[in-house]
């Protein structure tokens, strides 16, 4: 019994890396090494499912060594990956690696102009994506918009700017600015900041007054 315990304790597993940070679209490989007499080496994804070879995941396994390659990483690939070794007697040992996926800050195209009727609640769109979630700040005429700035203005959870009872007095230049903490491997760049093209809210006076429309147009500046 003592000898059997010593054999079981001899099975050890290690992975070349403990934590990895990737941007969306990048690829990376991991090496899992087992010390002992394993009869099987398997990889498991963050959902606990055994990984099988696919278009984006390649496996190459030898007797005591297994290589996992992840191609064109996507946000859903993030999580903890485990490599498990199994001996003939059923004893197992494992090691894990944490994979973090970052998506660069990106402003997506927004239809322009955006039109709002006089007196209605306007929602000015700021369509920005990133991982981690970005921090968004709105400016009007280079002044940050806060609830203290004006009670009719509110930044929504989806990053859009809501203006209650929009009027001609709301004309002006609006700017959406987003930032996100950089991954540790880009530590010298403490913040990434991208600025949307400036936009101006104006009225279309060609319509009857009771149908005045507040229009958001892109100035391209």
UniProtKB/TrEMBL annotation:
Q: Say yes or no: keyword Cell membrane present.
A: yes
Q: Where is the signal peptide?
A: none
- Keywords per UniProt: Cell adhesion, Cell membrane, Disulfide bond, Glycoprotein, Immunoglobulin domain, Membrane, Repeat, Signal, Transmembrane, Transmembrane helix
Matching InterPro entries, A to Z? Ig-like_dom, Ig-like_dom_sf, Ig-like_fold, Ig_I-set, Ig_sub, Ig_sub2, Neural_cell_adh
Which compartment or compartments is the protein found in?
A: Cell membrane
Topology with respect to the bilayer: Single-pass membrane protein
Report the superkingdom from the record.
Answer: Eukaryota
SMART domains cross-referenced by the UniProt entry: IG (SM00409), IGc2 (SM00408)
Pfam short name (any one):
I-set
Coiled-coil residues are none
The Ig-like domain covers 11-98, 103-190
- Return the GO cellular component terms, semicolon-separated: plasma membrane
List the CDD domains hit by this protein, alphabetically. Answer: Ig
Annotated GO biological processes are: cell-cell adhesion
Q: Which PANTHER family match?
A: FI24025P1, PROTEIN SIDEKICK
What name does the UniProt record give this protein?
Ig-like domain-containing protein
* Source organism: Oryzias javanicus
